[in-house]
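sorry to bug you again but im stuck and you know this stuff better than me. below you get a single protein, a line of residues and a line of whole numbers that encode the local backbone shape. mainly i need to know what kind of three dimensional shape the backbone takes. anything you notice is useful, everything is just below:

***
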Amino acid sequence: MMTVSLDIALLVIGSLLLTTVIAGTLTSRFGLPALIGFLGLGMLAGVDGPGGMRFDDYVLTQGVGVACLIFILFSGGMDTRWSSVRPMVRPALVLATFGVAISALVIALAAVMLLDFDWFQGFLLGSVIASTDAAAVFAILRSTGIDMSGQVPALIELESGTNDPMAIFMVGAALLFIAQPGASPLALVPDFFGQMALGTGIGLAIGWLLPELLKRKFYESSGLAFVISIAAALIGYGLAEVIGGNGFLAAYVAGLVAGNRVYDARRIISTFQDGLAWLGQVVMFLTLGLLVAPSNLLDVVTPGLGITFVLMFVARPLSVFVCLAPFRSLDWRAKLFVSWAGLRGAVPIVLATFPMVAGVPGAFTIFNIVFFVVLLSSVIQGPSIKWVATRLGIGVADPANPALEAAGRS
């Protein structure tokens, strides 16, 4: 077996990280999400590309993905201004729960009809791909020039930060139903509310404690403040998971609370966590790109196109219009934009590793379909977000149409 020295390994890792960032920057200049460049370079370095690196460790990929998502969600929470998103809490939470469930059920039905999946496999695929991706949404919205103080962008941002727990819960439920077909769905209801309550509680506690600790002069004026912020994100996630809560929700809520309190170190901590979040995106997408062999995607082109079409034009719009129907302040233009801005990214791909690790029948096909859908969603929806926002008058001032301006702003 060929061995590589530590020096060469570190050189290769550093070179891959730098090249991945450059690739992401280049794709962004062409109007594509940076994740396309990150994933693309990973695939080029992988077994089917000129790099020829063979990597098929789904357990490691799952661990890397979870670790990176913790910091992405924590940073996303820190950068979210509560004063802007507070009016959108109720619609965002409805979308983050019932909306995810509706999307999953529609995709499940499509998978049964189009892919000849059984209901459990279909529900698993739907659950994996139902949630929007926080990293993709945060990056796209903040790079398009859309007015982030508007209520519609705030709704999308808050939803993307809070809908992962619902998707993760449903993936776990689907795996349980596959392993134990006789399990009762009603028995999972108390578990769901328990996970959400514990995750929120831990997040609130960590988010309050972090600024209190950083107010101490010794910490706020030294690099130890950065170490403490890393510890806060990890403890929030880990503690919530250990006691039966949802760790991802805890990480996001902790960042949200810490980012909206007043203390001297807040700005530098936010900047540092933003850097960690970008590092997390680069590492996560590069790892996922290495894991996927492009030749395997050829077998799922047709089913992938079908699922992507259903997701973009049926499942997501249906879930948005149904869930936001009670909220009269959001007109059809706002709902249409929210439907189109439901970007998929790393979260569905990371969730798709769970069936692989669990050894579920058809897991390899599900993984490749999810990867294909994420790529297509990013290529189609990402570059068109600003154009759609402009056409619908969302997040931009339109003096000729006060009604549209009101819909796009708080």
